[in-house]
Amino acid sequence: MAKTAKFFLGKNTVALAFGLLITTLIAYRPVWNGLPVWDDDAHITKPELRSVAGLIRIWMQPGVTQQYYPLVHSVFWLEHRLFGDLAAGYHIVNIMLHCFSALLLVMILRKIGVPGARLAGVLFALHPIQVESVAWISELKNTLSGFFFLSAAFVYFKFDHARKPKHYIIAFLLFLCGLFAKSVIATLPMALLVVLWWKRGRIYWKRDIAPLLPLFIVGIIFGVFTAWMERRYIGAEGADFNFAFIDRCLIAGRAVWFYLFKLLLPVDLIFIYPRWNINSFAVWQYLFPVVFLLVAITFWVLRNRSRAPLAVLLYFVITLFPALGFFNVYPFRYSFVADHFQYLACIGPLTAAATCMVKGTGLLREKFRRPAQWLLLGILPSVFFLLTWRQSGMYRNAETLYRTTLTKNDCWWAHNNLALLFSDRGRTDEAMAHYQKAIELKPDFFQAHNNLGILLADRGRTDEAIAHYRKLLEIKPDYTDAHNNLGILLAKSGRIDEALAHFRKALEIRPDAIGALKNYAVALAQKGQLTAATSLLKKALDSAVNAGDTVRVKKIALIMTDLDEAINASHIH
Hints:
By secondary structure, this protein is an all-alpha fold. It folds into 2 domains: 2-44 and 85-398, no CATH class; 399-568, Tetratricopeptide repeat domain (Serine Threonine Protein Phosphatase 5, Tetratricopeptide repeat). It is built from 28 helices and no strands. Helix 23 (480-492) packs parallel to helix 25. The longest helix is centred in the middle third of the chain and has 30 residues, at 205-234. The relative contact order is 0.08.
């Protein structure tokens, strides 16, 4: 057994690092030059944030970036300075961070005495389930926070061994950096407790729990803040998120088995999985959480024989917990599961698999042991390498990603995004077909209704577009863009009074809607109510000045300056 462990653990860390780095880079070769997909453009630093002042705003002004993960957006800020719009640079950074995390995992497992550390690191680096986190530019959130998660764990285990304050301070600061990259790593202190319990067989208050309390507190604060941000700025609320507690338990029970199955058999991996229909009256849906509980109880009963199975299960569920359905996260609008949700959670099962394989080969006779070891380090990583190569090809560009998704999941999200893509390229017939399909699959998908209305209007089918917007407003009466767009079409048709009513409604719903404000003012002026139009704009300007919103002040001032010209040109848009 000692020879087997030596073979798998190895001594030449530099050779392991170099080999893992080269292999992983090559595995992700298809995406090196991959173009931005889906929300990548929203994460890559916007022009107004590319200055030093913009960097300060990233940290000090929640809401100016897609999510308040200021360390991630600081790295994006730096990447734009280095690479500009060259996507390859962003991809290489993600891949390198992933490699560093794999090496950290090897170092941690060696430090805590887990057999199969090297194989576990290779599996973590090359498993195709990781492609979504590594190949998708936006998921710098995962690769960066994952690096800090594992760095903090490595240093904390040093502290646990030597009890030196400097190690504790460094571990805490690394954990804090990770939280600023993605608050999902708030589960780290609980994960550390699981490992310490596995090592010692019990948890001690003074030695184990007390030092982790500050990490728990900070993690909870970040978690609560992120949950609020998801609702306030990202839109993780509404009908798509209205679930009773029992429904959320059903989602969680099913998700755990889904993730384990994808780790065991990584086939049919896609960007967006079908969204399950959760029904608390369907008895079969209770099988997932019930079986999970039975397995957990069994592992608890058997803990005196081996704590490892229960520790692996606890680590897996704890690390997955933020994405199991008990909290609203925006992607749940499309699906309850996603490959990138288990980026760190998969460490537990992959490590268990590596350990079992190492110990299994150690039971073989001497003449079979060495070939079995080479097979494990050769065949399984090679299969993962090929699967990762193929999977990463999905991320070459947005059209490839959406079309690949549709081959395995005929979902409204992919149809809508393809429609947006085709619309931007002037392929309006294809765009309209995909919008119509998206609406067919999700009749209350108001954005697709709105976009289809825009295309109808652009093609001169004004009456159809007006009828479409009226139907849309029956679905979502408080949709600002629909009121504004309908107002535009009515004004162009000479129905100014109706147009004014919709512009007014748009501003009632969203007072900061600059487009609706301008169109309302122009329509009032066209109707001969110039005083009312001027008064409206002055009131909006005073409000913006009082709020200190300089950007809005400039926009309103420009509208006031150009009002006469807009009237003469009938410039409602």
